[in-house]
Amino acid sequence: MRALADFIMRGRVQATVVVAGCAALPLLFWLCAAAGTLVFLRRGFKDASSVIVWGILPAMAWWVFGEPRTLMVLLGTLGLAALLRAGHSWNRVLLVSIALGLLYGVILGSVFREPIEALARALEKALPQMLDGLYQQLSVEEQARLGALIVPVLNGLIAALLQVVSVLSLMLGRYWQASLYNPGGFGREFQAVRIPRLPALVLLACMVFGPNFGSALALLTPLCSVPLMFAGLALLHGLVAQKRLAKFWLVGLYVTLVLFMQLIYPLLVVLAIVDSLIDFRGRKSPQGDDSANGEGKS
């Protein structure tokens, strides 16, 4: 990966080839966003715009053919990168990603309304078998309310997935920047991520109580969980860096996250909320320049 980052930063032609090529190829839109982010973080908008525009063109073509995700992730990742380049913390970037996820949800609800509704109808028919005898114990009103939540939850899950991809693309671009110009800088940045107490409690309230104020707000549950999930990962990375945990914990974490995501993901969210209240890593800040851009604080 570092070799690819080095190739991208050799010149405008090389960067354009990677950004445009990945935007044109299916399923590589995340790499396009990461490459564009690297150029933008290092060179700024003025120099990066001539590269990014060549990624936007094939992304717009994909949109015309009914595939908006390439353009959504590219522009969304660059928007988050603009905050990072302006000197905002990762905490703020992660919180702003919720607004990005909401925007994704609106677009997906418009472009993919029919497929999402068709999937929701299929899931609603399968609910009696999925919930076994519990579904029959619900009243008619409760069954109707449960059915009304399926569409916004599905929409929110897909939007949250794109939100995660955007944040991961940003992290990859930042990691590349650090590996080229300030080795170890991204690690220090990520290990320091911790959602403050008040925002964490607000996110928890939105996840738990949002659906009670309308079925449309059910999409907040997956979107608000994303910053907490990344904060949970940062907590474990930080504890390993402080030598409070052995490195094999990280290996086990990512293996189990892939195999048992439905169990590990909520656990990371809970860990992040508890860390916001207790601060497991303490208040001692790492020494030295924590900026990953290799240029000091921007």
Automatic annotation (TrEMBL):
Keywords: Membrane, Transmembrane, Transmembrane helix. The chain crosses the membrane at residues 15-41, 48-65, 71-86, 93-112, 149-172, 216-236, 248-274. It comes from Pseudomonas reidholzensis. This is Membrane protein. The lineage of its organism: Bacteria, Pseudomonadati, Pseudomonadota, Gammaproteobacteria, Pseudomonadales. The keyword Transmembrane applies.
